[in-house]
């Protein structure tokens, strides 16, 4: 016999099963009410029939207040960060922005020796200097030679620098110190001095290299490709220490347990570098690659000193030496400025494309 509650009395404690509605299913959600999870509805823990549902509270999202959105970094930090950066920005603006502005301005003018001496006024040429430059067949030959030469220098510098960085982690303290001092000595040598020393080493009459190799009086700077190869060796010699020291510092920061685990798995040194070290050193490799591209693309001193200003009939010209000849040897300053602007745009494009490719791979720089 079932005890029924008296009229007006409260229902007995405990869950009460509610019969399904006549529409053939559970109670429909009322407008404005938040539906409970299915597991809780199945457990019979809902309110008793006829009782009003409890109000549902919605948790406020963190970081948002009723008055408005988030504050900007400038509003939170004020002008203090910009005050710290102001001296550096002023120096960069004076040493970089203004010269670039002058370079671009002269490239749109007719600016020769007559305008420099004040004999004639400078006239606006628009893109006339660029049309003259792009219509010159020698410019495209020099541009191709510059791209190929810079690419060979970058690949060789990165290869030698990374290989020696790995070697530094394998040798003892004394050989490591000797190699570091030798590399830093090459890095600290001025470009003019280093170029002159390499010329003496490969001199056809007194150079020891020809005697050791038995080449007699072979001239390394006479042929186009041999001259480029000689300059490439000098560029790599004075550039690899930066890559070596930077990559070596990154390798030392890699946990030793990771390298030991790879060695225990039977990985070779090349596999450890390709599958373990290179991915972990990706941000460092990005920096040294961009620096090498910029330095090797605008190389000037080595070409000018070792090939005598560009080689026989300009066979070893690169863009920087080509711009120097147009601006100062021919007094066509506006044309030399146009070459400088083209070089700046090429380097910016290469850097931005490389960084974009790295970002697409999900790497944080």
Provide a short characterization of the protein structure.
Helix content is 62%, strand content 1%. It has 365 residues and is an all-alpha fold.
Report on the architecture of this protein.
It is built from 16 helices and 2 strands. It is mainly α and 365 residues long. It has a domain at 127-360: MetI-like (MetI-like fold). Strands 1-2 form a two-stranded antiparallel sheet. The protein is globular and about 75 Å long. Mean pLDDT is 81; it is low at 5-10, 13-50 and 62-67. InterPro entries: MetI-like, MetI-like_sf, UgpAE/MalFG_permease. The chain crosses the membrane at residues 82-101, 139-167, 179-202, 222-251, 272-295, 301-323, 335-355. Belongs to the binding-protein-dependent transport system permease family. Pfam families: BPD_transp_1 (PF00528).
What labels describe this entry?
MetI-like fold, mainly alpha, 365 residues, 16 helices
Q: What number is the mean pLDDT? A: 81
How would you describe the shape? globular
Number of strands: 2
- What is the CATH architecture assignment of the domain at 127-360? Orthogonal Bundle
| Residue share in β-strands | under 5%
Number of helices: 16
Return the CATH class of the domain at 127-360. Mainly Alpha
Run of helices and strands: HHHEHEHHHHHHHHHHHH
- The name of the CATH superfamily of the domain at 127-360 reads MetI-like
The Rg value, from CA coordinates, equals 36 Å
Q: Which residues form runs of ≥5 with pLDDT under 50?
A: 5-10, 13-50, 62-67
Largest sheet: 2 strands, antiparallel
């Amino acid at each position: 016999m079932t005890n029924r509650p008296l009229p007006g009395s409260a229902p007995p404690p405990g869950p009460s099963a509610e019969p399904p509605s006549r529409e053939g299913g559970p109670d429909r959600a009322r407008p404005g009410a938040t539906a409970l999870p299915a597991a809780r509805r199945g457990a019979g823990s809902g309110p008793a029939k006829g009782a009003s549902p409890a109000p549902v509270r919605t948790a406020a999202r963190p970081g948002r207040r009723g008055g408005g959105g988030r504050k900007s970094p400038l509003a939170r930090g004020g002008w203090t960060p910009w005050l710290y950066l102001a001296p550096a920005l002023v120096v960069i603006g004076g040493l970089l922005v203004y010269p670039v502005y002058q370079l671009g301005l002269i490239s749109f003018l007719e600016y020769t020796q007559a305008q420099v001496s004040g004999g004639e006024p400078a006239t606006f040429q628009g893109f006339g200097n660029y049309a003259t430059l792009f219509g010159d067949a020698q410019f495209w030959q020099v541009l191709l030679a510059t791209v190929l030469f810079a690419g060979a220098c970058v690949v060789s510098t990165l290869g030698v620098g990374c290989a020696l960085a790995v070697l530094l982690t394998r040798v003892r303290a004394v050989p490591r110190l000797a190699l570091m001092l030798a590399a830093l000595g090459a890095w600290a040598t001025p470009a003019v001095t280093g170029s002159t020393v390499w010329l003496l080493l490969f001199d056809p009459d007194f150079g020891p290299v020809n005697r050791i190799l038995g080449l007699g009086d072979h001239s390394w700077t006479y042929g186009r490709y041999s001259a480029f190869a000689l300059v490439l060796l000098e560029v790599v010699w004075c550039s690899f220490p930066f890559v070596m020291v930077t990559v070596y510092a990154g390798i030392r920061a890699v946990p030793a347990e990771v390298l030991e685990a790879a060695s225990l798995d039977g990985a070779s040194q090349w596999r450890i570098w390709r599958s373990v070290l290179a991915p972990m050193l990706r941000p460092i490799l990005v920096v040294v690659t961009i620096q090498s591209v910029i330095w090797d693309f605008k190389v000037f001193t080595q070409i000018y000193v070792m090939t005598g200003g560009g080689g026989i009939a300009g066979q070893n010209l690169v863009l920087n030496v080509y711009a120097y000849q147009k601006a100062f040897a021919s007094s066509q300053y506006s044309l030399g400025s146009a070459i400088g602007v083209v070089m700046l745009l090429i380097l910016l494009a290469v850097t931005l494309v490389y960084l974009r490719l790295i970002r697409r791979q999900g790497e944080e720089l």
